[in-house]
């Protein structure tokens, strides 16, 4: 069984962009319209010689309504089946109520979670992450899914000991 990495976070934080970077495809829909990926999307990535499965999700939101309910259900399922969880937040937008809700949800689960302050290209990583300590998931790591900044060292860490 390959290790499974789930990408979670509220819509529009860059999950699908990271999925595309990790799998080197354009398979995941990337758009400014939040919530475009409504179910789970699977791909393969590789770190050094370790292949893994990466799962993109539509996102988690508080008080999901209508089609969002299905999106949230799928995202939670992806988290359940994952060995590692990458929780993305938007370093440019700062902390939102959805981020708090997701953090609270993830903290209850016995999963290894990595908190990623995305869209941090051109910003020093301490500044990019500063807002997110309060989520209670440890030190945020600054990345740019779009440019790949910080992603390689992140994935090395994610798979340490696997
Ligand atoms: P998702 O809803 O979480 O899957 O987010 P997407 O991957 O669809 O990205 C949402 C928007 O953020 C798109 O316009 C992306 O181009 C943009 N985006 C994603 N990652 C980055 C990044 O690292 N830097 C910047 N500047 N924009 C990004
Ligand atoms: Mg997406």
TrEMBL record:
Positions contributing to GTP 1 binding: 9-16, 56-60, 118-121
Domain EngA-type G: 3-162
Family recorded in the similarity comment: Belongs to the TRAFAC class TrmE-Era-EngA-EngB-Septin-like GTPase superfamily. EngA (Der) GTPase family.
Subunit structure as annotated in this protein's UniProt entry: Associates with the 50S ribosomal subunit.
Function: GTPase that plays an essential role in the late steps of ribosome biogenesis.
Identification of the protein by name: GTPase Der
Organism ancestry: Bacteria, Pseudomonadati, Pseudomonadota, Gammaproteobacteria, Steroidobacterales
Residues of the full protein shown: 1 to 162 of 464
